[in-house]
Amino acid sequence: MRTGALSIIVGGLLAGVAAQTVDYAPDVEPLLRARCYGCHGAAQQMKGLRLDRRESVLGAGRMLITRVTGDKGAPFMPPVGEHLKPAEVEVLRRFIEQTRHWAFQPIVNPAPPAVRDSSWVRNPIDAFILARLEHESLKPSPETGRVTLLRRVSLDLTGLPPTPQEVAEFLADTRADAYERLVDRLLASPHYGERWARPWLDRTHYADSDGYEKDWFRPWAWRYRDWVIDSFNRDVSFDQFTLEQLAGDSLPDKAGERQIAAGFLRMTLTNREGGVDNAQFRFENTVDRANTTATVWLGLTAGCAQCHDHKFDPIKQKDYYSLFAYFDNVEEADVQAPLAGERERFAPKRDEYRKKRAETLSAYSVPALQEAWEKDMLDAAAHPGRRTDWDLAWDCLLKLTEGGWDGEKLIRTHAAARTERESDTLTDHFVRNYHFAVGDKRWKELKFPELDKKLAALKTEFPQLSEAMVVRDSRHPVPSHLRVRGDYKTLGETVTPAAPHFLPQAHGTRRLDLALWIISPENPLAARVAVNWIWQELFGTGIVKSADDFGTRGDPPSHPELLDWLATEYQTSGWSTKRLIRTIVLSSTYRQSASVRAELQTVDPGNRLLARQSRLRLSAELIRDSALAASGLLNDAVGGPSIRPPQPAGVAAMGYGRNDSSWVVSEGRERYRRGLYIQYQRSTPYPLLVNFDAPRTEVAACTRERSNTPLQALNLLNDPVFVESANALAALVKPGDFNGLFQRVLGRPANVHELARLNAFYNQQHDWPAVASVLFNLDEFITRE
Description:
Blueprint: H1 5-18, H2 29-35, H3 40-46, H4 54-69, H5 86-98, H6 124-135, H7 146-158, H8 164-172, H9 178-188, H10 190-203, H11 222-233, H12 238-247, H13 257-261, H14 278-298, H15 317-325, E1 330-336, H16 342-363, H17 366-382, H18 388-400, H19 407-412, H20 420-433, H21 435-438, H22 440-445, H23 448-461, E2 467-473, E3 480-483, E4 491-495, H24 511-518, H25 526-539, H26 560-572, H27 577-585, H28 588-591, H29 598-603, E5 616-617, H30 620-631, H31 687-691, H32 710-718, H33 720-732, H34 738-746, H35 752-765, H36 768-776, E6 783-784
Antiparallel strand pairs: 1-2, 3-4, 5-6
Helix pairs in contact: 1-5, 4-5, 7-9, 7-10, 10-11, 12-24, 14-15, 16-23, 17-18, 25-26, 25-27, 30-33, 32-33, 33-36
């Protein structure tokens, strides 16, 4: 006769499963731990198991099944005696599956709860927040002052502080709907799109360079950034926003904008280091696309299942590679995507440009030399190791072909079948890199360095059409495979594109089908993840604190009913982001004072119950923007290529093969554009951004850290942008007009104590710009109250 905890568990659960109910068994947990783990290692892995707690069952349940089946070589539970029968294992399995994680359950639309203090409730958000506060015997904070509220909502919606004139106008507006009018004006501002594009670009790990060793600059990455800004400004519905980024190349697109949107899939890193296996890097790119999609839209740590089944969430390795398969036949390319008016300017000169280019190439005997080079290159590819110099040339074709093109595919395409763009790309590569095959001496004898400069000069003389980084489906798709232990070389079973098995299934195998599934009403994750991200931007922390992990190891929602209500509102309002943000910022919850209350310090130190607003240190870009705005230096032009403000000597030289001259500082007012537009070089990011916690761009970043370091203080004192801003501000305000300084920098007049201290400082320093610099270094300046 079998005895022990497992027998008791199975016996107790058989009746529950048969009756379609689940009863927890807390009384057997000590027996399970004491008698059935079988080894110390197993005990450590299973020590968190509590059968009376849903999250515990979900977290450790998969390990329990592994132990009772001895799956994948795991030690059996129990180590001696009779093991569970298959039917009994199935009982355990069904018990665990019925204990379904909250995030994987369908979204419900809960009714706002009843509250005692209904006068505080401006919209349903307040009812959900207040009900929880009343349950905890807490009261919300009073509404913050009008100047603080104006600065808060201005920074939250546009990323810019209010001007003194805007402060005066808002204070003078005594209409009952003055604040609502303010919110509507800010939502209509073109700077709204800039403010909300930045956190989205964090999630897509946007950067202006390839990364890795060579870290080449990407001259057209900004086209995707502009698309994101414009989409937020036009309030493109989030479902359409999703479709275009994941599958814009598959949608009808007369203007080419949807191709640019699919540049989301081009934010992966590119490794051009010699000797790198292209097959491995292509695999890693596909992994990145699958992981980023799962993180950004689903809040899943799917990447944990690349090498094995997920240890905590029900994501099987096959689920991972089924998601991976949606991206397994993506090809990269840079295509012509003319800006307004470019095509009309270029068209009349196109024939002349083509003629001069052909004449220039012929003068250097390029057509004949290139034809022979292509034959030798293909021969080297077919016989590796026979001619090591040509092996190097072949490797460089695979790594150094510019514009996102696959050099191997270009050279294997018959010359007559190549497009004009493909032909030009291959020829330019040949001219610039022929020395890898024939040596520097021969290359220089042919005067190819001179030719390379002439071809570049021709493009300057005849301005080319702007381009965009895009993707498209491969013309020669290959089957997708599970990779055994995550090794790209070890092919497992064939997989077809599909959604994770534990969620409602997608209908189709295209990326467009994946995108349609993500935003479908049946998928319980996308809307929850999206509204949580928006909430996080307005309160500092999401309703689910772990914004990138809605799985069993993530944080449970502080207000689950509110999360579902917001998700439902988002979906039923046509996925309007502006409407959702408007609803949130009009709530009493948002308008509360951020002052810390003594009774909350012990009850709710993390402000998860939201009995007050949160004080948030501004992001790196917004600190810089605020200084430029206060000083009058800000160039508020929206969109366009990235800029290069001054940076400390030696930063650029830290990158491979670079020196300070490679960072050409933008001229004139371009250097004073918003921080959103600063060129992000992955290997040597702009120091101000790094010091104020801008995320690295190797992977998706759903949350920014907020640190407090000495380097930040040194930045505020000595960085050129703050020195220039202090000087410009001092020139705008008459010496001794301390209130004028306060109004421009903080949006309010100075109090008596502040006036006295500034006056004493000025009398000591006799330096008005130094006084302006003091204000840029105040905590109040870099904080959103």
